[in-house]
Specification:
It comes from Phoenicopterus ruber ruber. Keywords: Calcium, Endoplasmic reticulum, Glycoprotein, Isomerase, Metal-binding, Repeat, Rotamase, Signal. InterPro entries: EF-hand-dom_pair, EF_Hand_1_Ca_BS, EF_hand_dom, PPIase_dom_sf, PPIase_FKBP, PPIase_FKBP_dom. Pfam families: EF-hand_7, FKBP_C. One of its GO terms (molecular function) is calcium ion binding. This protein is of the alpha+beta class. The chain has two domains: 109 residues, Chitinase A, domain 3, CATH 3.10.50.40; 60 residues, EF-hand (Recoverin, domain 1), CATH 1.10.238. The strands form two sheets. Strands 1, 2, 3, 4, 5 and 6 form a six-stranded antiparallel β-sheet that branches. The chain is globular, with a radius of gyration of 18 Å.
Length: 187
């Protein structure tokens, strides 16, 4: 169930699969209303960055955050089948078969890092693979574009995380195939 709590007058761009989103969200157990997660108290209070629709968040959030615009707030109710299911998530204090409620505030919708356009834009030397330097430069440009102040360590953490998750063969480059989780044919 998706309830829109606030919709800005200008609602553009709308989020879609593969977009890079920046959001704060609080998670509650539907059974007793207790809070099990708050992004404002994690990660020094920085909003979360994640790619929509690729499983970086639970399936229910991937679905609930489609077609959202920057500044929009939603309250979503997620059944266990789209959250942590029968096993629950002990580390997150979520019992088995728990229905979850999230209050979400979306700050930014960026063209996702998985589009063909983005790959070609990052691949400055057109060798069909992305070096650490190319991705580092891309991150600097993205950060400058959104104008938010960030600690320099955030850049290094994101860069390291990108390579950890995408450089499957460990050769220090992200090939078009490794980069391309959506299996576009254009590359």
């Amino acid at each position: 169930k998706i309830e829109v709590l606030h919709l800005p007058e200008v609602c553009s761009p709308k989020s879609k699969k593969g977009d890079l989103l920046n959001a704060h969200y609080d998670g509650f157990l539907a059974s007793d209303g207790s809070k099990f997660y708050c992004s404002r108290t994690q990660n020094e209070g920085h909003p979360k960055w994640f790619v929509l629709g690729v499983g970086q968040v639970i399936k229910g959030l991937d679905i609930a955050m489609m077609d959202m615009c920057p500044g929009e707030k939603r309250k979503v109710t997620i059944p266990p089948s789209l959250a942590y299911g029968q096993q629950g998530y002990a580390q997150g204090k979520i019992p088995p078969n728990a229905t979850l409620i999230f209050e979400i505030e979306l700050y930014a919708v960026n063209k996702g890092p998985r589009s063909v356009e983005a790959f070609n834009q990052i691949d400055k030397d057109n060798d069909k693979k992305l070096s650490e330097l190319e991705i580092s430069q891309y991150l600097k440009e993205e950060f400058a574009r959104d104008g938010k102040k960030r600690h320099p360590s955030v850049h290094d953490e994101i860069l390291a995380d990108i390579f950890k998750k995408n450089d499957h063969d460990g050769d220090g480059f992200i090939s078009a195939k490794e980069y391309n989780v959506y299996q576009h044919d254009e590359l």
